[in-house]
What we know:
Blueprint: E1 11-12, E2 22-23, E3 31-32, E4 35-36, H1 37-41, E5 43-46, H2 47-52, H3 67-71, H4 75-93, E6 97-101, H5 102-105, H6 112-133, E7 136-141, H7 160-179, E8 184-187, E9 193-194, H8 202-223, E10 228-231, E11 241-242, H9 247-256, E12 263-268, H10 269-274, H11 279-288, E13 292-296, H12 315-327, E14 336-338, H13 349-376, H14 378-386, H15 393-399, H16 405-412, H17 426-438
Parallel strand pairs: 1-2, 5-6, 5-14, 6-7, 8-10, 10-12, 12-13, 13-14
Antiparallel strand pairs: 3-4, 9-11
Helix pairs in contact: 4-6, 6-7, 7-8, 11-12, 12-13
Amino acid sequence: xxxxxxxxxxxxxxxxxxxxxxxxxxxxxxxxxxxxxxxxxxxxxxxxxxxxxxxxxxxxxxxxxxxxxxxxxxxxxxxxxxxxxxxxxxxxxxxxxxxxxxxxxxxxxxxxxxxxxxxxxxxxxxxxxxxxxxxxxxxxxxxxxxxxxxxxxxxxxxxxxxxxxxxxxxxxxxxxxxxxxxxxxxxxxxxxxxxxxxxxxxxxxxxxxxxxxxxxxxxxxxxxxxxxxxxxxxxxxxxxxxxxxxxxxxxxxxxxxxxxxxxxxxxxxxxxxxxxxxxxxxxxxxxxxxxxxxxxxxxxxxxxxxxxxxxxxxxxxxxxxxxxxxxxxxxxxxxxxxxxxxxxxxxxxxxxxxxxxxxxxxxxxxxxxxxxxxxxxxxxxxxxxxxxxxxxxxxxxxxxxxxxxxxxxxxxxxxxxxxxxxxxxxxxxxxxxxxxxxx
Length: 439
Ligand code: XUL
Ligand code: CO
């Protein structure tokens, strides 16, 4: 049965097209810097937003009543139908990857064993659809935050039974991710954080979190799961103090607990801005620490202080994000996962398509701008000039670790002609970026 009969296959028509069901900038086969656009961007659909989110917010009911959900009130039947819709949806858009949480795809049973049985049944359907379409799993994950048992966290819960439950749940989620040939497995610390230190043993919680991640690494070895592990930083929401605050915090955590190298980062745009960083800052830090894994592509609203998970449409942002990705050598196991949901009032099926087209076009345009910037090396040339004093003389000695404070003092004490500071040229650079964006 076809569920999206009314929706045509989305094709590239170019920037002059007025067809809302067409790409204006995303031309998957077009070569940019010697690589196909689709290979640079590796777009992925987030199952939880596109198939599950229904528009519910703290003040209102669901607004998105999907015709295929209406057909099936039985939860397992509905879950199976959603898989069919998901793959039809990805085929229409030419999305070659998807990501999911265990609880997005199948309903929970009374016990974990029953839940796992449900999962296996749905994974059968997913596996068949993956075979039929060639669509791949970018990463899998476990939802360790929705169920009320996780009220105080999962691996950072003060209750050891909950830690155990979370371990068993991740064990299964890793198994199904392996079965579906997932390129990665993500840990987003949903409720791994706290509200008040008055009742929190932060050291034990963080140590336990690290123990949990080591168990995952051990289990991956045991079952031969070779996908990449990711941690997804986020500074707040749902807890006030999330342990994985931002790239810098996660990198320090990985180093402290001897997990560097085993884990890379899955960086999300809206999480970056909630941490009062830019996305390019977060990616640059990851790249500089050899830890860029994947990207959750979305955007927040700078006037709102929460995680709005909007589709990325801001070209300035997509251009600078793609610039950092290109500069970092591009994706290996990762990709651009649309961890983004349509607004509550965009409640039709068409809106889901329009939103993905908007996001894919914004990233395609961003890629082309970034590629041009990279080709011309404008920013890189400016950097080389700005830091040139470290290529010779005392600067070179500093970089090579040849001098200490004593030698620095000897060098500078009687020096009258200090090198002149040069302008940072911020506004000039910003206007050059605009030229690249507007063309
Ligand atoms: C929550 C979030 C998650 C993770 C996967 O803010 O981004 O959806 O991406 O658990
Ligand atoms: Co995310």
